[in-house]
Design brief:
Layout lengths: L1 H6 L13 H14 L2 H9 L5 H8 L4 H30 L3 H14 L3 H12 L4 H10 L16 H25 L2 H10 L4 H13 L4 H13 L2 H6 L7 H9 L4 H35 L18 H19 L17 H4 L4 H27 L5 H4 L1 H4 L2 H15 L5 H26 L2 H9 L4 H12 L1 H17 L2 H7 L6 H9 L4 H32 L5
Helix pairs in contact: 2-18, 3-21, 4-15, 5-9, 5-12, 6-9, 7-9, 7-16, 7-28, 9-12, 10-11, 12-15, 14-15, 16-28, 18-22, 18-25, 18-27, 21-26, 22-25, 22-26, 23-24, 25-28, 27-28
Length: 549
């Protein structure tokens, strides 16, 4: 009996499930960026859920014109950006011109929205360079009485948004076309007798547009809540709804702040309604043209190269900024300044430049390990939650940040400013890197684990060195996003931290055009330097590591 007891199997002990420390770490670190928004939203927007606040908002005399200007600029800007993107892809892909355009996209993306708005203002204003060229041939002695900027309908703002957002959509589209094997599908359709335009309209766009819905939503959300570009190019009295909301939220009167919170909620409501209508229109189009008709149409023999003026406008914006920064005196209708001078550069206030530099470096370098930890160990099904700052109007989130920091007594501190920028830098870097991360060959990690490496060691020795190029690109994108932040810097910084973005917007309200051009170019120089540095480092790494190219 004793022997039987000895040979009897011991009862199994109840084992607790192993804790996935990687996922816990990822959720904790990312939660430090996103979780404080939840009470902040309640503190910032809670007083707005009152009937009298909404009644005061709806009877405000500025409300109708602000809403109409916002809808006009946002809808027209997003629609034109989508049409420009579709037209360029249909017209150019896969020609060498498309490849050259892809190579220029980082340069165009590195131009912040504020700098682009300032350059476009110098270009199309009644005393701008285009009016000077026209006046030179028509013998004008004074600027024409045209409302080409700050018009009451927001048309100049819509033009700026369309041009700027089209480069972002093209950048996303170029990555999607690589994933969807568009070249093979285009070749098959061409072999069946369809023209390139028919192929894009009936085969490729139905496949690509559903993948572009989130970038288009991000462009719409930004257009609805943009403040910095609207202050430069948008209408003045009354301004767009986003500018009006910002003014109300900045007011010391709590009743006016509550009205600003209601206006921020109205921006969210507008975004939801427009998005729902767009989904409904897409569903109807798919039902109406579910299958191609089968009719073949001849291709246009020599289509007009309409992409040339679009590129010319973008480069003209940069050129006129450079010219104004070195102009001595430049009176209408002269095509060229009376003289060139470096006085504006020598006397430039570089304090905002250095503040922007250290802030963007700290934010982007902090965001990179957060993104890598999330992509490696975080629950990927929650990626959509991290993308919310990109597809939700900015003002409600900024108000939530500010309310949370006020309760914690951390407003107007460097730590608060870094945290406020992380909320937007992190999703952009994640969006940039997630495609390359998913395309990585998982068998390499399996082999490394089989040879005795831990998960972290395999990442440090195998995965992340092989992904260095897309990681550097993501870092450059995060750096550029931090440089371009206006509302978080203004609200959270409390006026104690001047960046090149806040300085350029402040100077656009009045002052020397030379000084404004210098600050706008300094804003361009920082993201451009980040993209150049990322390219140089990636090439240097590839030269010394043959397998990483």
């Amino acid at each position: 009996m004793t022997t039987a007891l000895r040979q009897a199997p011991a009862p199994e002990k109840h084992r607790l499930p192993r804790c996935n420390w990687g996922a816990v770490t990822a959720l904790t670190l990312v939660g430090l960026v996103f979780v404080p928004l939840l009470p902040g939203l309640y503190w910032a927007l809670g007083p707005s859920f009152k009937l009298d606040v909404w009644q005061a908002l709806l009877v405000d005399p500025q409300w109708p014109q602000a809403v109409s200007a916002t809808l006009m600029s946002a809808l027209l800007g997003t629609l034109l950006a989508g049409l420009i993107t579709a037209g360029l892809a249909t017209r150019l892909y896969p020609s060498p011109t498309w490849q050259r355009l892809q190579q220029r996209l980082p340069v165009l993306l590195s131009v912040p929205h504020v700098a682009f708005a300032v350059g476009l203002f110098f270009l199309i204003a009644p005393s701008g360079w285009l009016a000077r060229v026209t006046g030179h041939f028509l013998s004008w002695a004074s600027p024409p009485d045209w409302v080409t900027v700050q018009d009451p309908y927001g048309l100049s703002l819509a033009l700026a948004l369309a041009l700027k957002e089209s480069w972002f959509l093209l950048w996303v589209l170029a990555a999607l076309m690589g994933e969807q094997a568009v070249t093979r599908q285009l070749a098959v359709a061409r072999s069946l007798g369809y023209s390139p335009a028919q192929t894009w309209r009936q085969v490729l766009w139905p496949l690509l547009l559903p993948r572009l819905r989130w970038p288009l939503a991000a462009a719409l959300a930004y257009s609805l809540s943009v403040v910095d570009m609207a202050l430069i190019l948008g209408p003045g009295t009354p301004p767009t709804l986003a500018v009006l909301t910002w003014q109300w939220l900045s007011d010391p009167d709590t009743n006016v702040q509550a009205q600003g919170g209601a206006a921020a909620l109205a921006l969210l409501l507008l975004f939801g309604v427009i998005s729902a209508l767009a989904c409904g229109v897409w569903w109807l189009l798919r039902r109406w043209r579910a299958y191609p008709s089968g009719q073949r149409r001849a291709a246009v023999p020599h289509p007009w190269p309409w992409q040339t003026p679009l590129l010319a406008i973008s480069y003209a914006v940069l050129a006129v900024l450079v010219l104004w920064s070195v102009a001595d005196s430049w009176f209408f209708p002269a095509l060229w300044p009376d003289g060139l001078s470096w006085d504006a550069w020598r006397n430039a206030n570089l304090a905002p430049f250095w503040t922007t530099l250290w802030l963007a470096l700290v934010v982007s370098l902090l965001a990179m390990p957060l993104v890598l930890i999330w992509l490696e160990w975080g629950p990927q099904r929650w990626n959509a939650v991290l993308y919310l700052p990109l597809i939700v109007p900015t003002l409600p989130l900024v108000a939530a940040q500010y309310a949370a920091l006020l309760r914690l007594q951390l407003d107007a501190t460097a730590l608060a400013l870094v945290w406020s920028h992380l909320l937007w830098v992190l999703p952009y870097m994640l969006l940039t890197l997630v495609g390359a991360y998913r395309a990585f060959d998982a068998r390499l990690m399996t082999s490394a684990r089989a040879l005795g490496c831990s998960s972290l060691q395999a990442c440090l020795r195998i995965k992340w060195p092989l992904l260095l190029r897309p990681m550097l690109t993501a870092w450059a994108v995060g750096f550029a996003v931090s440089v371009a932040q206006y509302l978080p810097t203004l609200f959270v910084g409390g006026g104690r931290f001047d960046t090149v973005t806040t300085e350029a917007v402040a100077l656009s309200a009045g002052g020397s055009r030379q000084v404004l051009a210098v600050q706008a170019l300094l804003q361009v120089a920082l993201p451009l330097a980040a993209f150049v540095l990322a390219t140089v480092l990636a090439r240097a790494w590839g030269r010394h590591h043959q397998g990483v190219r």
